[in-house]
Amino acid sequence: MQLDDLIGLREVDKEAWRALEESIIYYKGSPVGTVAAYDLSQEALNYDQCFIRDFVSAGIIFLMKDRTEIVRNFLEVTLKLQPKEQELDAYKPAKGMIPASFKVASDGSGGEYLQADFGEHAIARVTPVDSCLWWVILLRAYVAAEGDYSLAYRAEFQEGVRLIMELCLANRFDMYPTLLVPDGACMIDRRMGIYGHPLEIQSLFYTALRAARELLICRGNEDIVAAIDSRLPLLRAHIRKHYWIDIKRLNAIYRFKGEEYGETAVNQFNIYVDSLPYYELDKWLPKKGGYLAGNVGPSQLDIRFFTLGNLMAIISELTTEKQSQAIMVLIEERWEDLVADMPMKICFPALEGEEYRLITGCDPKNIPWSYHNGGNWPVLLWMLAAAAVKTNRISLAERAIEIAESRIQEDEWAEYYDGKKGRLIGRQARLYQTWTISGFLLAKELIKNPSKLPLVSFEAFPGEQSSRACEFEIDSFDQ
Ligand code: GLC
Q1: Atom 7 of ligand 1, nearest CA residue
Q2: Is there an atom of ligand 1 within 6 Å of 51 CB?
Q3: Which atom of ligand 1 is nearest to the CA of 188?
Q4: β 30-34/24-27 pair status
């Protein structure tokens, strides 16, 4: 968007474009990314860096507005930061990783270089597993916007995608098709009890596998392509079956027996019935609604609703058509819990009391209904809009956009909101947070031009059974 193009736009959109423009980082004279927040009122910490996950919404809106150069530059420079060899030093990032963030540093003699952070500087030294997944997703969006594979087919890009896939598909001790990660390995980059197989990572993993499958040239990559092809259906079936919660499934789980051994076990993860707040859930779940659980593992079913994972599952068709519709029904019927005064909650409900203390490690930033622990994050608006377009529930996104629009500019594009209804600007929220700005613009653009959705969305996987057949299969899981 050039400044001339701002003529005729509403004030809030003009201001958003201006702020987005100001957030751009230049390297050797070329635009390569955006800072996390352009907030001069607070100490920057690492908010003056370009985060890979934060840049995605900016990247997509730039692609939609023919500002493809910045996205290409971003992809090129971040690819150069990816380690291509395995270091012996275990504190060094693994081969194939993409950093959490990077910044332009001065070499002391007038030159510039890019300094990456793979989590070795980040608070709590969290590993950014989602970065490499978002990177592949953005590369595929670039290819889709340009209608041209030439960038992705360049040898260094093929190598980059391949290394990411090798890292994700490596042999592990784990026995599931999902990806095993430590706590805080994604947007929620603090301890929040999401170690193991958190939904956010699984949805992004699935989306990135689909993207990589489109981008990799098969010749020379036969082994990786075969590995992706065998992983995709297993991962999809695993999530659709074991993560799904609706009233029917809840009934089945409620009557689970424990301690089952062997192949015929119905309660495969040995979920202890008393670990779930049945009476809360039975009240909360709308009759026709449902959602994917936050995490599944040994004797663990995390029933918190995590927004990013659920919305990305819809966008990438990780969920069946029926499940996607049920998630949208849940959002509509539980609007006051999930959207309320600022779209939308990062997760619901918050961890409180003893659970909060034990699971977050008494994190003062993550007190109940704050920040990652049940705060509201405007960046999630674009994913809600994309999921709404995908499921043909556009009016839901319009409603959410209207809510955001009524205060987002006045609140100076806050990073997140606190409180059960999201009425309070987050206690430690940055202002002029770039993904709040770009997420808002992107949500509006997706609603205005739904034909742009394929930049980020996927159709049912070729060869996948029709949705009906899958639903039959899922129903039969419950028997
Ligand atoms: C916080 C968020 C993280 C984001 C970063 C920069 O750490 O939890 O998801 O990438 O800020 O905005």
Answers
A1: 189
A2: yes
A3: 8
A4: antiparallel
Distance 334 CA to ligand 1 centre (A): 26
Ligand 1 atom 9: residue of nearest CA: 187
- Report the alpha-carbon distance of residue 159 to residue 225 in Å, rounded: 13
Give me 180's structure tokens. Answer: 């095993």
- Going from the Cα of 189 to the center of ligand 1, the distance in angstroms, rounded, reads 7
Token pair 């009016």 is found at 395
**Residue range 161-195, pLDDT digits in tens:** 999 999 999 999 999 999 999 999 999 999 999 99
Closest protein CA for atom 6 of ligand 1 = 36
Give the chain's length.
479
pLDDT in tens, 14-67: 999 999 999 999 999 999 999 999 988 888 889 999 999 999 999 999 999 999
State the CB neighbour count (10 A cutoff) for residue 286. 15
Q: CA quadruple 235, 238, 241, 244: dihedral positive or negative?
A: negative
Ligand 1 pocket, 189 CB below 6 A?
A: yes
